Every structure is written in C-alpha cells, then in structure tokens.
Amino acid sequence: MSKRDRYIRWFDEIGKEDLPVVGGKNASLGEMISHLAAAKVKVPSGFALTTDAYRMLLEKQGLEEFVFAELDRYHRGRQDLIETGRNIRLRFKASALPDELTMRIFEAYQELGRRHGREHLSVAVRSSATAEDLPTASFAGQQETYLNVTNAHDLLNACLDCFASLFTDRSIAYREERNFDHAKVALSVGVQKMVRSDLAGSGVIFSLDTETGFDQVVMITATWGLGENIVQGTVNPDEYYVFKPPLNDHRYRPILRKKLGEKENKMVFATGEKGHTRTIPTSAEERNTPVLTDSEILHLTRWTVLIEQHFKNPMDIEWAKDGESGELYIVQARPETVQSRRKRGSLKTYRLVGQGNIVVTGRSVGQSIVAAEVCKIRSPSEIGLFKEGSILVTEMTDPDWVPSMKKAVGIVTDHGGRTCHAAIVSRELGIPAVVGTSTATEVLEDDQEVTLSCAEGDIGNVYEGKQEFEVEEVSYSDLPQTTTKIMMNIASPDAAYRWWELPNDGVGLARIEFIINDVVRAHPMALVKYDQLQDRKAKAQIDKLTRGYSDRCHFFVDKLAEGVAMIASAFYPNPVIVRMSDFKSNEYANLIGGDQFEPKEENPMLGFRGASRYCDDRYREGFALECKAMKRVREEIGLTNVKLMVPFCRTIEEADRVLQVMAEHGLVRGEEGLEIYVMAEIPSNVILADHFADRFDGFSIGSNDLTQLTLGIDRDSGILVESFDEQNESVKRMIRMLLKTAKEKGRKVGICGQAPSDYPDFAEFLVREGIDSLSLNPDSIVDVRRRVASVEQEIASGQKAGD
Length: 803
What we know:
- The chain is of the alpha/beta class.
- The protein has 29 helices and 30 strands.
- Strands 23-24-25-26-27-28-29-30 form an 8-stranded parallel beta barrel, surrounded by 5 helices. It has a 7-stranded mixed β-barrel with strand order 15-19-18-17-16-20-21. The chain has a 6-stranded antiparallel sheet with strand order 9-8-7-6-12-13.
C-alpha cells in the first residue's frame, strides 16, 4: 500500500500537504510522524481512509444526489436543520461500504495489527474533514470519534458512522455559517492504534494561555482514563502551567502551577453490548493524586514546543499515556484558532462597579462580564426552549449544544475545566463562561437575573441580580517611550496574564498577601505548628486545603511559589519586585488558624508587621517558608527576574537582622544576581537613607504609609480623611530628600503607592524630581505613560533652551 494508493494512506507517508486527501486531523498526525519522530515525539501509528474513499461511497451508493436534495429542502425552508441532518445520516448508515473499500480497510487493519503483534488490535477511529483543524477554522467536535474498536466488523461500522458524521446538525450549521461549499468538503477517516490511557491518563494541551493569549506558557490538563471526559466536560481535571523560556536549561524545573482537579470519574474500555467504553467513579486516591509527575509534565511541554515550532502556529494538542508501557503519546494536534487570531494593540477591560451576593463560582473563561436572565437546559432535547440573549445554565455541553450556545450571552456549567467543550466553544463565540461550578443547575433558577463575571481572575463568579459594570477599551499600540520606567502593581497571579501585552517595564510591587489570603488561606504558623492547633474547625479546613500533601508546610511553599511564579512569568525578563508579606496582626489573625498565633494590638498599623515580624520567634518559622518559596521561584523555576523587597523596616538594626535571616535561608543579596529592595514608608527610611542604601539595592516609596507617619494621621481614619494628602508639601520634601540621597549613593528609587495612579499632578512632580520608576495600577498605565512622556519632553526642551 504505497502513497499512490487512492483509498488508504499510512500516517508515515503523509504530511500537511496532503490535507485535501486526508483532512486536517490526519494530515497533522502524518506531519508529526514524518518530521518529529527524530526529536522523539511519539505519535501512535495508523492509516487514513482518503477523501477518495468518501467520494467512492457517495458515487457507489448514490448518496450525493440525495444529500443535496435534502440540503435544498433545508435552504427552501421545507424542513429544519434537525430533520435534514437526521435524514442524511440515516441514509449513510443504511448504506454499505463498497466491496473494494471494505477489502482495503480490512487489509490495512490486519497489517496494523501485525506491526504491533496483535490480531485484534484496539484502535481509535477519528473523523478528519478537509474543513477542520485549520489555522482559520477549528470548531470543537464537528464530527465523531469512536474509541476502543477491536475487530474488523466494528471498524467498518465506525468508518461508515464517521462518514455520516460529516452531516451532523452542528457540522452543517458550521459550514453554512462559514460559507463552506458542502460539495467541496469531504471527510477522511483516521484509524490509529489505541493508547491504553484507560489504564493511566490523558488530556489536552495548549501552547499558550487560552484566556489571555500569553504565549510563553504551555497549559496542560489531565484526567484519569480516556480523554473524552475532559473534552465533554464531565470532569474537573488537573491543570498544569509550564514556562517556556527556561525549559531547556537543565538547572531549572519551570512548572509554574499545579492545580489538583477533582477528577470525579474516568472513562475506561468496556466489552459487550453496551459499547466500547464506560464511565466509572475514581477512587479517593486517584482524586487526590496528580495524573502526571513533574518529569512527565516537562516531557509533554518540550514536545508541545517542538510541535508549535514545526507548525509555526500556537497549537491545541491531545495527549495520552499508555498504562501498559508507561509511555506518553501525542494523539492529535490542531492549530489554536482563538487567541492566535485576536487583533493586538488594544485591550477591552471590564470592571464590576456593584458587587452583590455570589451565588456560584467556577473556572472563568473569557475576561468579560454580562448581566442577563438564566435559561436552564438539562439535555439537548430541550434546546428548542432556549431563549436567545439568556445565560445558558446546564450540567455540561457537547457539540449538539452549539446552536443554543450561539444564542447565549454567557454559559455556566456544573462540570468541566478550561479545556472542556463549553470552554472551547465559548472562546470561539467570544462570550464568557463559568465552568465546573458543581451546583449551578441546583442553585440557579429559570428567568433569574444574574451577573456572570469572568473579569476577576481565574475564578469566575455568578452574582445575584444585574450588577453595574464598566467597559473600557484601552489602546496601547501607539504609546510613547519614556525614560522613567513605567511598571505595574500586581496582586493577583490570575490577573497578571491579563496585562502581559500592555507595554511595561516590569512589576514594581507584587503583593504576596493576595496569594496567602486567597490561595493558601491558612496562617503559616498554623501549618508549622499544626499539631499544636487548638481550633478543631481550623484543623478540618487545613486538612481539606492541603489534600494530597503529607507535609502541610510544603503546601504553603508550593502555593506561594506558584502564585509569585505566575506573576513573574507574565513580565519576564523585566524585573518583578516581590514584597515579602505585609499583613498586620489583625489581618493575619483572620487567616485559618491565625487567631492562636497573633497578638491583640490596639493599633496593628504601627505594630507587629514587616521586618520586625520576620526576625521574631513568633513568626520566624513562617518567614522561613516565605523565603523557601522565593528561593524556589528563582532557583528551581528559573525566574531570576524576581527581586525581593522588605516592607516596614524601621531601623538599621532591623535591616541587618532581616538580611541575615534571608541569607540563612539561601537568599543572599548579590548571589545569582539577587537584588533586595526596601520600602521607604517610614521617616527613618528617609532620614537614614544613606545607611539603608549601604544595605539594599534600592528603595520603593510607599506613599500611603509615608504620608500617615509624616502627617501623624491614621490613613484609615474616617474623621481625618480630608487631611490625609499624599501631595502635602511635607511628604514631597521627604521624597526629595530620599531621591537626593539615593542618587548620591547610586541607588534606584521607585514608587509603588497609589498616588501616581490617582493624581496625574503627583506623577508629574515625581518625574520632575528624577524618580527612576513609577509602579501603577494597570488600568492607569496608558494615561500616565502619555503624561510622563509629555513632561519628559518638556524637561528636555527646557534643558536645550538652557544650553
């Protein structure tokens, strides 16, 4: 069976140039086998029934005339889409494959079995149309796939069913919408050795972040058993993020994040009359164990990068692990067609103004907000009841749901992760979705008014009622360059990727309090001294949080490192200045188990916080965990752009102590390029700036605290709010003093306080005084950068005039 065979082509004989003959899916498989095998990318072998085989079936069985007569009735309005698709598919399935084609398929299947030493080889039978898996067209699940086909008779039926699936309702509608000529679209069938992932795991990979288009990461989802459950959205899978730049540096293990999914069930092989596969519950151990090891995650990531480089396009890939051999395989690869085609140069931002009660939460898909009424649909049979302009709420979706999804303004599902069918289609349609809520169909009611928000990071929220929100288009395509570095204040790891395209010089303040409060949630000392924890409820909460961890302290280090790594990767190689924890004692007490380990203070704002806390026996072990996390980010993950900052350092003695403690935990200033900054937020930081400059690499002005302590006003005071002014002349003089001393000592000064974001005049004052960088809220960067450029131009013009 050579390449000249009209009806059968082996995967190792075809490539992307054969797409008209074998369709998009098979062409990609052949391309990888032909060109990436030398790089040890493993793809299961197999063969393709060509489009000539499909056309032979049409001709021998007289199907073409019937198909187009049915489509003509549909176009004339004599029958609806559902009836049209059903009539065509029934006619296909009532036909028989021509004898010549049957013989060729049987011979090829026998040969594939011989190559693998098995008479009844289990195969996957996949549809591969000439109008799918293209860089410009790749709608999810247009045609059918059949798994665990184990004999020639079932293989023939599966091939016939694949041909029929070219006329599923969704496929017809898709071609109509894209103006593809039905007569010019043909279908090939791929027959591929089945990977025994039912005994191991499988999943989906994207070579970029699916929500933001950030192209320096690989996102992998994984579940136990066959991968159909991920695509169908019946499980909430594991999710892993890997950073590309350090991938081939043997010193680093650049896994940014590992999120353990519930993986409630798995699809496995079945025998008998009920079908080729069945779904069974997973064990407690499986639910609490990652599907992939770190080495496997990195292995798949390296393959993904090779595939992306070969196809010169971001990719959507399916992988599987064989439970018998332990080997990993790539089973499908197609171009990613949403983020890779999005226009660059502007960013639409959504912000909630009001904030009502949260009804359900899940994984966010998209970055927008929509307010509408709920329309709850339980099954495809109810699709006709869907009200256009509503938010679709259901357990999960599959390709039969697409007609309703196109009428929806948002989607909410009980099950699924960020690579499930609902997530993929919502991205294609450009509407927000909240997936994997577990309880949406129970909690939400038909016609209930809700607000679906996917603009708050990784977690998507559904709020009660129609909440007010704002939409702003931020254009950054023509932003001017500035001498003053324009950096960002970032707290949320999930929000960091949202801003990666915005022209910037890095992050001037990454707050780890957000990560501790929202991800870790437990007090560090409650983890360190878990056995001494007296609060039983807190213990139960910690047990739930740290599932899968034998050492609870490792949980803290992992989650803090992951959060910081996500932020740092979004802006790599620009510097990201991470401030060590700056909770006050009352805020620490609100963490799970925290009350037992925190003092009761009259004024926590001026109490047990910052550098004094780090060196105190009451928190020293907690600070050690913070240091371990930062060391991991820099030395294991490879994000050497991370710089550290010490907040609220009152005295030179405190500075020396905290630097010594950090060094004891492997964070030595100057080693491996590590820079350590200090917050300038206490008058003593300004008065003794020359001494602080001898110990730190630079200063970051905290204008809120500096104003508070310069003016003697509690910044949270409601009575004195009118007197709290960061632009007060006394505050400005403190800043001038700091800048003068820092310049004399050759140290950089930035500002991470709120003032430059809120007050353009204050930003102008700082630029005129020669500040090195402004760290701003992301949504103010465009306006402030333009203002800064104007001031710098004015200063330069004045200097020229003076010359």
